[in-house]
Design brief:
It contains 14 helices and seven strands. It has helices at 3-21, 26-40, 46-53, 64-74, 80-88, 98-103, 121-130, 153-170, 193-198, 214-225, 253-263, 280-288, 308-317, 331-339; strands at residues 106-110, 135-138, 174-182, 201-205, 232-233, 266-270, 293-296. Helix 1 (3-21) crosses helix 4 (64-74), helix 1 packs parallel to helix 5 and helix 10 packs parallel to helix 11. The radius of gyration is 21 Å and the shape is elongated. It starts with a helix and ends with a helix. The mean pLDDT is 95.
């Protein structure tokens, strides 16, 4: 691809990334991602020809705003639209947690368009590389979560083949094989045990019957935590803190976190702005009980991979240090921890 066409493609993708980072509405992100997809699919020389003829807007997915961005980028300028977004994005996402964020080596909870994410695996992982990660676990949903296009056993096996090929291309960066598996009503994990055995990282989360009585929810979570295939307890209360919100699930936190400590399961510090789960009072309890943690983004788009500062700020406020965070370890040390 010619340098001017590459500049236009990069500008569109950067705008989409910044929109994702600031949690802008999906339609705004999609406009720029779709435009980038159109440009990437053009034959050599066609973009330059259409730019010269003034026919960019005849292309599918290219409108007035995206055409202006493309034109400015092809002239070697920083598009005005991008410059305005960069001006707003100059400051850090969070006021604290910078030292902890610098210690992180990867992210253990991410989604692609194989389930309910919005971007292909490779696009997610290349964004992670740009952010400085040395590894990322791909954890698309398990089959029971049909609304999120959860992966059947056959689709998961197919994804594992895709990941193997991408790892050859992206080395030394490492895509860790994984899944975000549903914790079933009885505490079982929603995937075949022999498949879970093959994965590098298993995040397990409650996505259904979130208002289950406290005693039943406690038993359900502890049964899952005791499963030898489980590595990380995802967004443990299931709360949402934006819009209409959603209250926390009720469970005996001391019992659940003691199970995490005893069975070597990390408590996730979920960095999504609408989750920020667990709440700080429970995060402090888990820390006092000697739990280990994973600070994850639960990203569903490339720009969301940059949300870890939100989790790091809360972790720091609750006294969590890097030596207690499993994704502050190198990939070999992390996998050794998981294999325990």
């Amino acid at each position: 691809m010619e340098s001017d066409a590459r500049a236009a493609l990069d500008a569109l993708n950067q705008i989409a990334f910044l929109f994702e980072r600031t949690n802008e509405p999906t339609y705004r992100v999609r406009a720029f991602r779709n435009a980038a997809t159109t440009l990437a699919g053009l034959p050599a020389g066609e973009l330059k020809r259409r730019y010269g003829e003034g026919t960019l807007e005849e292309l599918a997915g290219i409108g007035k705003v995206t055409a202006a961005v493309v034109g400015e980028a092809m002239r070697g300028e920083t598009p005005a639209y991008l410059a305005a977004l960069l001006g707003k994005a100059d400051g850090p996402l969070a006021r604290g947690g910078a030292e902890l964020r610098a210690a992180l080596r990867g992210d253990l909870h991410t989604h692609s368009d194989w389930s309910d994410g919005g971007s292909p695996i490779e696009e997610m992982m290349r964004a992670a590389i740009e952010l400085g990660h040395s590894y990322v676990a791909l954890t698309d949903h398990s089959p029971r979560l049909t609304v999120a296009r959860g992966l059947s056993p056959d689709r998961l096996r197919e994804q594992l083949d895709v990941v193997r090929k991408l790892n050859d291309e992206l080395s030394p960066f490492r895509i860790l094989t994984g899944i975000e598996v549903d914790i079933l009503d009885d505490g079982g994990l929603d995937q075949q045990p022999e498949l879970l055995e093959q994965l590098d990282v298993v995040v397990a989360s409650v996505h259904s019957k979130l208002r289950m009585p406290r005693e039943d929810m406690t038993r359900r979570m502890v049964a899952a935590i005791a499963n030898p295939h489980m590595d990380v307890l995802g967004h443990c209360t299931g709360r949402l803190v934006v819009g209409r919100g959603r209250p926390e699930s009720e469970f005996d936190a001391e019992v659940v976190f003691e199970a995490c400590r005893q069975f070597g399961v990390a408590v996730e510090i979920n960095s999504r702005p609408e989750r920020l789960d667990p709440p700080k009072r429970l995060l402090s309890v888990a820390g006092e009980m000697g739990c280990e943690f994973s600070i994850d983004t639960d990203a569903h788009a490339p720009g969301q991979l940059d949300w870890q500062p939100y989790g790091c700020e809360r972790a720091e406020e609750c006294g969590v240090t890097a030596d207690r965070v499993i994704n502050a370890r190198g990939v070999d040390e992390l996998l050794e921890w998981v294999s325990r």
